[in-house]
Amino acid sequence: MQTLETRFEEGISRYKEGESAEALLPTFKDICAQAPKNSAAQTCLAWLYLLADKPNAGYKAAQRAVKLAPKDPQARINLAIALLETGKSGVREQIDMVSQVLFAVDELKSEVQENFEEGLRRKPNWKSLKRVQKWLFDS
């Protein structure tokens, strides 16, 4: 029997190898169901939902991730994208929070940049992702 941590790491590896968001969603949904307080898993789940064009589910997972890890920039980026894609308000607040964290912690900048690039490789016409990226890095 695999631990949740092992399954999480395997899911991340499968993602990095190019497995589709749709194929990975059941794994991450299951991990989040068994470990609802795991912010990293919730953040991944939100990202996968957004990649799979399921913004409402992505919004819910992103909300949980931000609640569990309010200082995680990727959780807030996912929430900002989900807010844009569902037409909800509150995007600016998320962008401001992420900007503050990225300004304070330089190492996170390259990680966040890589996530944007990865998202655009998988979904080249992702308008919401491009808007959030522009707000964070073209200011």
Give me a quick take on this structure.
This protein is mostly helical and 139 residues long.
Radius of gyration: 14 Å
The helix/strand series, from N terminus to C terminus, equals: HHHHHHHH
CATH superfamily: Tetratricopeptide repeat domain
CATH class: Mainly Alpha
Task: Estimate percent helicity.
Answer: over 70%
**Total domains, how many?**
1
Number of strands: 0
Largest sheet: none
Low-confidence parts, pLDDT < 50 over ≥5 residues?
none
* Count of DSSP H/I helices: 8
CATH level 3 topology? Serine Threonine Protein Phosphatase 5, Tetratricopeptide repeat
Portion in strands? under 5%
Calculate the mean pLDDT score and round it. Answer: 95
Which second-level CATH architecture applies?
A: Alpha Horseshoe
* Structural classification: mainly alpha
Distance, first to last CA: 48 Å
Shape: globular
Word description of this protein:
This protein is mainly alpha-helical and 139 residues long. 79% of the residues lie in helices and 0% in strands. It has eight helices and no strands. α6 packs across α7. The radius of gyration is 14 Å and the shape is globular. It starts with a helix and ends with a helix.
Essential attributes:
single chain; Serine Threonine Protein Phosphatase 5, Tetratricopeptide repeat; about 140 residues; mainly alpha
List the helices and strands and how they pair.
Elements: H1 4-16, H2 21-34, H3 39-51, H4 55-68, H5 73-86, H6 91-104, H7 106-122, H8 127-137
Helix pairs in contact: 1-2, 2-3, 3-4, 3-5, 4-5, 5-6, 6-7
